[in-house]
Design goal:
2 copies of one chain form a homodimer. The first copy, chain A, has 9 helices and 13 strands. Chain A is 27% helix and 31% strand. In chain A, a hairpin with a 7-residue loop joins strand 12 and strand 13. The N terminus of chain A is likely disordered. Chain A has 2 domains: 62 residues, Spermidine Synthase, Chain: A, domain 2 (Roll); 227 residues, Vaccinia Virus protein VP39 (Rossmann fold, 3-Layer(aba) Sandwich). In chain A, helix 4 crosses helix 5 and helix 6 packs across helix 9. Chains A and B meet through strand 2, strand 3, helix 8 and helix 9 of A and strand 2, strand 3, helix 8 and helix 9 of B. Strand 3 of chain A pairs antiparallel with strand 3 of chain B, so a sheet runs across the interface. Chains A, B: It comes from Lachancea meyersii CBS 8951. Chains A, B: Keywords: Polyamine biosynthesis, Transferase. Chains A, B: Belongs to the spermidine/spermine synthase family. Chains A, B: One of its GO terms (molecular function) is spermidine synthase activity.
Chain lengths: 298, 298
């Protein structure tokens, strides 16, 4: 590997250790070569070529995506809300500068317009250079990119009912650093204001049932205080700590059943998907008994 | 932590690194104190007290169980075959010396007899000392312990049709070392011979879809060549590499639907289960598209 004094890499291995979010446990990935490291205006960014997971994007010390397993996250955070909606046409992505969610959104033939709001342009540029398989939809004719704060963007939309969205996907980094505000009640209220009456919202929960169940319970309670329905589901990703990541899905109306696909993928759509399918949609909402009870019967 | 020159522990962290089974990735657990380390006649055994996962049992360098998350594995490998069966009375556990599966089996009021065949008595004694929450059913009146090779035990049973089992659970360690033979076709044939006509067999697959999909495909194909049905399902366990572990479930008859619970837990049974529930039973068979296609449409 190239020389690197970045403290998270030692003896040729990247170590994801975080005493606050997941004390006492860690993930290691073998590093072939450091491709990029800097502190942008907003966060610490590391890209390395790993031995067995392809190129890896790390923000503030936490793995965001690897080329080998990124589809599990991108597909589930995108297709769960889009197939839970009967006819999504206008989609907003808050964050998601690596382009992975955008790649999935434009697979839906019914989508006319996909807007991506990313605060940190350097993430987009790095993804285009080092994660080209993810950053492949920025030039798509349906796509609009806004380089600005997602919070402020939503505040502006909330004032203009005609701009509201069918689906909003919050693809933020974890709630320490620039993304902290995405995990609070005010953010759910903004999402609610920016969503059409029959719309669906999804946000990554940054945690999973094994790591911080009480945090998830609080997040679902917070979302439930704003939306008519808020449900927890998850996707499995081997390079996220504990091997899974939670997602929170919400609607404004009681009668939208988020747990089942309202539309099924067409054959053409399904052939482009490696993780999502309609059965997996439903299965991802099924939780172990102890987690279900803690989240839904506090 | 106490002093220890065991090579898998460095700077106070246990590192699970295995270039053969999962090259380029690793799991770390912070060690408070090494409780036990030896090489038994059959394997290298390590027990340590971790910072955040309770006591941890490691065989040949691979985490077998931690007090915090062991129920996810024990419950699923036990309750999937037992609830897929309409009336399991006579249950065999091959391996499982830590006692966790036995603890789950005796929760079923319909089970009359649970036989555990473990080759390595030291695992039982260590579990009784360091994992008492798992090793709590050895004295149960339904339980018989046989300290012998599981393979030979099954060969003997195969000769005596009257001794056949309703459910057989193979709770082995991974297929390097003493458990290697548990992952080959001859073993499935022995299981078939030792099982009643309406019986159900389950074995841990030692891998998951993220790590070694071709190995799983071959294992399912091997089981399918012996049994009328062989299906793959999984459980999530944060301290197993990649966060999940596969299980292979088999029956002799086409008309047993392994994917759904044939009986539901009684209220009394369900109240003792932290992971398993009837919905989770079915969800655990739902696979990501790419994995499903690779396993079932080779």
């Amino acid at each position: 590997m190239s020389s690197c004094n970045y403290e998270l890499i030692k003896d040729g291995w990247f170590r994801e250790i975080n005493d606050k979010s997941f004390p006492g446990q860690g993930l290691e990935l073998k590093v072939e070569k450091v491709l990029y490291h800097s502190e942008s205006e907003f966060q610490d960014i590391l890209v390395f070529q790993s031995a067995t997971y392809g190129n890896v994007l790390v923000l503030d010390g936490i793995v965001q995506a690897t080329e080998r397993d990124e589809f599990a996250y991108q597909e589930m955070i995108t297709h769960i809300p889009l197939y839970a909606h009967r006819n999504p046409r206008n989609v907003l992505i808050v964050g998601g500068g690596d382009g992975g969610v955008l790649r999935e959104v434009v697979k839906h033939s019914c989508v006319d317009k996909a807007t991506l709001v990313e605060i940190d342009e350097s993430v987009i540029k790095l993804a285009q250079k080092y994660l080209p398989g993810m950053a492949c939809a920025f030039e798509n004719e349906k796509v609009q990119i806004k380089l600005q704060d997602g919070f402020q963007f939503l505040r502006d939309v909330a004032e203009k009912p005609e701009q509201r969205y069918d689906v909003i996907i919050t693809d933020s980094s974890d709630p320490e650093g620039p993304a902290e505000a995405f995990f609070q009640k005010e953010y759910f209220q903004l999402l609610h204001s920016a969503l059409k009456e029959d719309g669906v919202v999804i946000a990554q929960a940054s945690e999973n049932v094994w790591l911080n169940l009480d945090y998830i319970r609080d997040l679902v309670a917070s979302a439930s205080s704003v939306f008519a329905r808020a449900e927890y589901c998850y996707t499995t990703v081997p390079t996220y700590t504990s091997g899974q990541l939670g997602l929170i899905v919400c609607t404004k109306t009681e009668n939208t059943n988020l747990k089942h696909a309202a539309r099924h993928p067409s054959d053409g759509e399904q052939s482009q998907m490696r993780y999502y399918n309609a059965q997996m949609h439903s299965a991802s909402f099924v939780l172990p008994t102890w987690a279900h009870q803690r989240i839904y019967r506090p």
